[in-house]
Design goal:
The complex is a heterodimer of chains A (about 280) and B (about 575). Chain A has about 280 residues and is mainly alpha-helical. Chain A is built from 13 helices and 4 strands. In chain B, a hairpin with an 8-residue loop joins strand 11 and strand 12. The chains are: A mainly alpha (about 280), B mainly beta (about 575).
């Protein structure tokens, strides 16, 4: 299998549907409804267009260089859109969208082990941006209007999508783990349970639970193992959150701005690497 | 096709280069006290409050203990400063508010040389922060009764007060008789003659809902229902001046209500039709533009470019920053590295010809930290409107920060954010504390440069309100700053002597006596610049009603005054380096 083929080959969901079709359709739905109802892209379409274009262009160029031909662009489409939604840079800046999307796609071709990329591209790139460019970049951290209908639509379609993509156990596993650790944290930090549970109801977590942690290319194989991994992701997130609660991480530390992202950033590749390492070389 | 190894090396190098670029371009800017950078801007600011006789310190409200977990957040407002001339001697005075029971407001009378004495107690405007009646949040000054002296409307979390100037250095609270003594949790107001009857009407904004007594809470469900599109704030009210000392609530009739947590309002004719409009900055929501339709009613205009960027509007400054004869709009918002970049909005005004406002803010204009009050004014007398932005929310611990705590609530759905009990405790954490003001010098063509470090604006207090006036009649705008739980600062401005200036003091006859809403367009050096008399702008602030224009090296050719009545008056070759006093033609 060629390197490029490895980056674009499609895991097959039930009835042969590439799950990325479901994900990209769902993401498009979020974009359309969110922009229509709450202008989630802000006052200009340009940043989103730049992110999307950068992702698609980088994918096309790198694929042609490595394997020739025209790539399947679903993955790049998802990455570009996710960057366009998640990234919230300082006023008027466009370059973060272009750079972040390009880093996302390029990471698939660089950070590899046994012909698999180890990081979810968007997860990797937004974490890198927060780590190296937090002076000019922030991540989606607020509501989309706090509209119950919007929330209901996203959760309903999101759950249906991950079910059809055969990764429902990952989303639910993470959700239950998060709630468990949120409850545990209240005994340590004595914060209201609502405050600890609150984040998971927000848009950033919706994108995280439905698109990132369930990425078919960067999850381990085996349902039980997948649930185990997201349990560890939630545990790592809990540790980050406690470090932030007790000011162990200094004020302004990027990890506190996006705990689940960094938890996945650290935990996901370790487990994937371990699983790949145990497999016989092909 | 290049060999695989070379290809991999090239792709890896590109990958590293991308991350390197992100690191280089993404470094933080601003924050902390900036050092002088050696640039010359033609003016210097020097803090001089003590030597000028100002020793005012603001005290924050102490609210119901049910809010103890987030008290610094909820009680984070109240420091306000307004420029007035209450004794009518032609020298700008200052009124500063306090916000805790038992702590007095201060009325600093200008002795006629730029030094001050506090006469609030003898004037009867000091002891206004009283249990059961609420605490001060800000004031606006203008002659509402047409007797020739400036009166004061004091908006509060509590019962507002309307102080009628008795003309003898004392004031009488006539709010009840006037019909405006309605309990509100207000952080903004402005005087406006919306129907052009020559009498000043009053627009008052609500923040927390008016049924809430913040000292005796029945519920902790008092916060915003949404961080972006909240509509559960207090009502706004428009009061029409009946001319006999009474005001009539015409809010419903004129369509001027909003419950969007309004923090600031300014009134001016923004679409050039001769009628004063209202522009609102709303916390937790988009800005609102209420277009005045012939003095009968207002229409909240949709589709003018405001709905697309829901933010946390904190103040409204109006200024012709392009020198095109149109008032642009600057609304401050919140930015915090890593967490939130809402960005301030600097809007080009094309309402008159194209029907929209366009946000052109970027860079330092957009990111001023947790920005509060802002004002336009020509600080360097170069003929262009600069911006002064004060900022910083809660300065407490240097090491502990509440942004993470707040982020738990900020993204949450449902009623979590609305319930103050659900917020994590702030304890002694800062929230965007120790930020330095921005002095954004207009370089022309919509480009601004932050000169704070170079011109001496380096305090790190939690600024709320900023107001300008030439307190010494020396041809330079001094800067007064009210800081939350901090001192009232006065920055004396020393401008290069070769830069000319001119000021206009207007008195209405057919229009309201304070000439609120009048616009002066000054033609000088082939360019034109416009300013409008505003009684209430920025955040909890008011600039001097005297309009100050910088000239650079140009000579003033003519000034055109458009009075609120519609009368136009032209003054040919007005004398520069002085105050031109104009009375509206009676015929």
């Amino acid at each position: 299998m060629s390197l490029a083929a490895a980056t674009t080959s499609a895991p097959v969901a039930r009835r042969g549907i590439d799950p990325r079709w479901l994900s990209s359709s769902f993401l498009t739905l979020i974009l359309v409804i969110g922009q229509w109802r709450f202008q989630i892209l802000g006052d200009s379409y340009l940043p989103w267009l730049v992110a999307l274009s950068s992702a698609l262009l980088t994918e096309i160029v790198l694929h042609r260089l490595h394997a020739g031909g025209f790539p399947n662009l679903l993955s790049a489409y998802i990455s570009g859109n996710s960057v366009g939604i998640l990234l919230k840079p300082s006023g008027g800046l466009i370059w973060p969208f272009a750079v972040c999307a390009a880093i996302a796609i390029t990471s698939k071709y660089v950070l590899r082990y046994r012909k698999r990329h180890l990081w979810n591209p968007t997860n990797f790139s937004v974490c890198v941006m927060l780590l190296v460019a937090s002076g000019q970049v922030s991540m989606l951290s607020h509501q989309w209007g706090n509209d119950p209908w919007m929330v209901a639509v996203i959760w309903s379609v999101g759950l249906l999508t991950v079910y059809r993509a055969k990764v429902l156990q990952i989303t639910l596993g993470y959700l239950v783990s998060f709630a468990f650790f949120a409850w545990l944290r209240t005994f340590v930090n004595h914060h209201p349970l609502g405050a600890e549970l609150g984040p998971v109801t927000g848009p950033m977590y919706q994108l995280f639970m439905f698109f990132m942690v369930t990425d078919p290319r960067t999850i381990v194989r085996g349902k039980a193992k997948q649930v185990g991994v997201v349990f560890v992701v939630a545990l790592a997130e809990c540790v980050i959150r406690l470090l932030c609660d007790f000011d162990v991480l200094p004020a302004g530390n990027p990890l506190c701005a996006a705990p689940p992202m960094f938890a996945l950033f650290v935990v996901g590749p370790i487990f994937l690497y371990a699983q790949l390492a145990r497999e016989p070389a092909r | 096709m290049p060999p695989p190894l070379l290809l991999r090396a090239a792709v890896t190098a590109s990958f590293v280069a991308l991350i390197g670029y992100a690191w280089w371009a993404g470094r933080a800017t601003g924050g902390g006290a900036p050092a002088p950078d050696g640039r010359e801007f033609g003016f210097q600011l020097r803090e001089c409050s003590k030597e000028r006789g100002i020793d005012f310190v603001h005290h924050a409200p102490r609210l119901d203990e049910k809010l103890a977990n987030i008290m610094p957040h909820v009680a984070g407002m109240g420091a306000a400063v307004s420029v007035c001339d209450f004794d009518g001697d032609g020298w700008a005075d200052l009124y500063a508010t306090n916000s805790d029971f038992g702590h007095a407001n201060a009325l600093y009378r200008n002795r006629g040389d730029g030094t001050f004495e506090d006469v609030a107690a003898s004037a009867g405007v000091a002891d206004v922060n009283v249990e059961g009646r609420g605490v001060s949040m800000g004031s606006i000054w203008a002659d509402f009764d047409g007797d020739g002296d400036q009166d004061c409307f004091l908006y509060k979390w509590g019962l507002p007060q309307l102080f009628r100037n008795e003309g003898n250095g004392t004031f009488q609270d006539v709010a009840k008789e006037a019909g405006v003594a309605r309990w509100m949790n207000s952080n903004g107001a402005c005087w406006i003659d919306y129907d052009r009857d020559g009498r000043l009407d009053l627009y008052v904004t609500g923040y927390f809902r008016e049924e809430i007594d913040l000292w005796h809470l029945q519920t902790t469900m008092i916060m915003q229902a949404s961080f972006e599109f909240a509509r559960n704030g207090g009502h706004n009210y428009l009061y029409r001046n009946l001319g006999d000392g009474r005001f009539e609530d015409v809010t419903e009739r004129t369509g001027t209500d909003s419950t969007r947590w309004t923090l600031a309002v300014a009134a001016a004719d923004l679409n050039g039709d001769g009628w004063q409009d209202l522009y609102l900055a709303n916390d937790y929501g988009p800005e609102e533009y209420f277009e005045n339709q012939g003095g009968e009613r207002f229409v909240r205009r949709e589709g003018v470019g405001l709905e697309e960027s829901s933010k946390s509007g904190m103040s409204v400054a109006l200024g012709d920053f392009e020198n095109v004869g149109r008032l642009g709009v600057y609304v401050t918002n919140i930015s915090k590295s890593g967490y939130l970049f809402q960005g301030n909005n600097l809007r080009i005004n094309r309402l008159a010809d194209r029907g929209w406002l366009q946000n052109v803010a970027e860079g330092t204009v957009a990111d001023c930290g947790w920005a509060w009050g802002a004002q336009f004014g020509d600080l360097d007398n170069d003929g262009r409107q600069d911006l002064y932005v004060v900022n910083g929310f809660v300065s407490a611990s240097q090491d502990r920060d509440y942004w993470y705590g707040m982020s738990k609530i900020a993204g949450a759905a449902g009623e979590l954010a609305e319930d103050a009990r659900q917020w994590p405790p702030m304890e002694d954490r800062s929230l965007s504390g120790y930020e330095c003001s921005r002095v954004l010098v207009n370089q022309g063509h919509g480009r601004f440069v932050d000169a704070a470090g170079s011109v001496g604006a380096n305090d790190l207090f939690d600024g709320r309100a900023v107001a300008f006036a030439d307190f010494r009649h020396c041809g330079a705008l001094d800067v007064a700053i009210a800081n939350q739980k901090g001192p009232l600062l006065l920055y004396a401005n020393e401008v290069a002597a070769d830069r000319g200036w001119i000021a206009f003091a207007l008195a209405g006859t057919r229009s309201n006596r304070s000439a609120v809403g009048a616009t002066v367009t000054l033609h000088a050096g082939g360019a034109r610049q416009s300013q409008t008399v505003l009684a209430g702008s920025g955040f909890c602030a008011q600039n001097d009603l005297v309009l100050h224009f910088g000239l650079g090296s140009a000579r003033p050719e003519k000034a055109v005054v458009r009075w609120p009545s519609g009368v136009e008056q032209t003054v040919e070759s007005p004398r520069e380096r002085g105050i031109v006093r104009l009375e509206e033609p009676r015929e």
